[in-house]
């Protein structure tokens, strides 16, 4: 049932002063030993170097291929031994017969704590000389499966959280520009409307419309039109403050809500952003095209409701377009 996943490696002593005679691991038949072990198991030489492991261990410790020593995978968490080093366990086990119980803790790259794993370690001796040759570690299968299941649940929860976060972002984001979408802006405006009265602040709603956008689409095609929308959106966002909300209302219409802002401060923003819009260049087959935009704005303090402020700003936008475009206009008081 089980297979050897790592070939046998001859033992090389790492302690020149040791008095313990040790046998070569190549005569043990490690593959045969592991094939008869039902638990997850690993075999090391007496210095801790991994010389074989079975499929069960590979299933629960996938990164075992990268490990060279037992200490690459586990730390000793037993308190009954007089040593804290796994490579010294052979001295203790060699004085006993049968299996010796220890507690191991998996080394994990994540920050979460790892449960200790009951493990039984026994000495493998050379069949001809009976000298100590290797150590066989048998890990408790039930604890390992439980640990693996916990890890799978943890990974699944992280994946679910990532997908949930992405779904939330998709629900409030315009896919073409990356700006906030109409749904989010509407909700935010409602919250801002009610919050400003408690804080004694004002907000200014601005509506933008790209001038002659249909002509851009008809003349240069929809891909160029989409690029023009993205370039325009980036311009609006780059000139806004982190506390402001910039969104795409639909088509070539955009909305900006300047929070904690007066009409005079909004005018300064509009002067700046309109200048940048005139400098925009959108690549096309003929080289590049420029664009202009019209805008209308209304302070919340001028309106009776969010809907009223939007209507006022929309009326001002229409007046700006009727008066020649490439300009902004404030809503009438």
TrEMBL record:
EC code(s) of this entry: 2.7.7.65
Q: Which GO terms describe its biological process?
A: cell adhesion involved in single-species biofilm formation; negative regulation of bacterial-type flagellum-dependent cell motility
A GO cellular component term found in this entry reads: plasma membrane
Which positions fall inside the GGDEF domain?
201-333
Region feature Disordered, mapped onto this chain: 1-23
Catalysed reaction equations from the record: 2 GTP = 3',3'-c-di-GMP + 2 diphosphate
Instruction: Write down the superkingdom of origin.
Output: Bacteria
Q: Where is the composition biased (Polar residues)?
A: 1-11
Any one GO MF term held by the record is:
diguanylate cyclase activity
Tell me its cofactors.
Mg(2+)
| PANTHER family according to UniProt | DIGUANYLATE CYCLASE DGCM-RELATED (PTHR45138:SF9), REGULATORY COMPONENTS OF SENSORY TRANSDUCTION SYSTEM (PTHR45138)
Cross-referenced NCBIfam families: GGDEF
The name on file for this protein is diguanylate cyclase
Please report the organism this UniProt entry assigns to the protein.
Answer: Alteromonas genovensis
